């Protein structure tokens, strides 16, 4: 059986090549997944011309279809977003809006195309809102058809009203590292199960 694969959509507002806490957090998770033999890939959504809308392809140079193809090809999705004003950032919300189109996309057996895929969520910030942000993202991902592993969300939130970001830390805090490891382990377990036990067709 081919190895599992994962793709991380990094929803930072910061274009490459500037450092990004969201990208760093996602990379820690991808490193954990690679330790379980998962092939990984990642991209910053803001680096691509993703049009506003709720269709799979909005035309006029829309680059979402290329990103969408990467999601369809992967077994595991890692969605990484910063907190802004207590909420997922606008790029993460845009990703959810574009994924909304998949509510009406089905496979050859009539199942939603995201059935059988696992989604995890990573959040960084220096203000409150991590649990709400994870909850918002997970609800939307589950609505589209992704499956969520046990403890499939991870976060780091710095001291409120300070300027220290996740990328400024000398090392990943032990609690975050342990959470990331558990997230990856459970995501791989669920992805392997779904690979051989797909949801029933309609």
TrEMBL record:
What InterPro entries does this protein map onto? Flavoprotein-like_sf (IPR029039), FMN_Rdtase-like_dom (IPR005025)
Could you tell me the superkingdom of the organism this chain comes from?
Bacteria
Taxonomic source organism: Pseudarthrobacter enclensis
The protein's name in its UniProt record: Multimeric flavodoxin WrbA
Domain (NADPH-dependent FMN reductase-like) ranges: 16-160
Listed Gene3D superfamilies: 3.40.50.360
């Amino acid at each position: 059986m081919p190895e599992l694969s994962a793709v991380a959509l990094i929803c930072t507002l910061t274009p490459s090549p500037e450092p990004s806490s969201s990208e760093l957090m996602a990379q820690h998770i991808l490193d954990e997944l690679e330790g379980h033999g998962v092939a990984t890939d990642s991209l910053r959504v803001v680096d691509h011309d993703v049009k506003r809308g709720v269709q799979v392809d909005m035309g006029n140079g829309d680059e979402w279809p290329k990103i969408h193809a990467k999601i369809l090809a992967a077994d595991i999705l890692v969605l990484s977003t910063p907190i802004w004003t207590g909420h997922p950032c606008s790029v993460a919300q845009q990703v959810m809006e574009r994924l909304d189109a998949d509510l009406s996309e089905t496979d050859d057996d009539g199942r939603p195309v995201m059935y059988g895929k696992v989604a995890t969520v990573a959040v960084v910030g220096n203000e409150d809102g991590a649990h709400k942000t994870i909850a918002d993202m997970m609800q939307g991902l589950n609505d589209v058809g992704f499956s969520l592993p046990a403890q499939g969300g991870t976060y780091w939130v710095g001291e409120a009203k300070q300027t220290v970001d996740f990328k400024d830390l000398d090392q990943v805090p032990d609690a975050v590292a342990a959470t990331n490891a558990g997230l990856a382990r459970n995501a791989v377990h669920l992805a392997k199960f779904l690979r051989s036990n797909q949801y029933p067709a309609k």
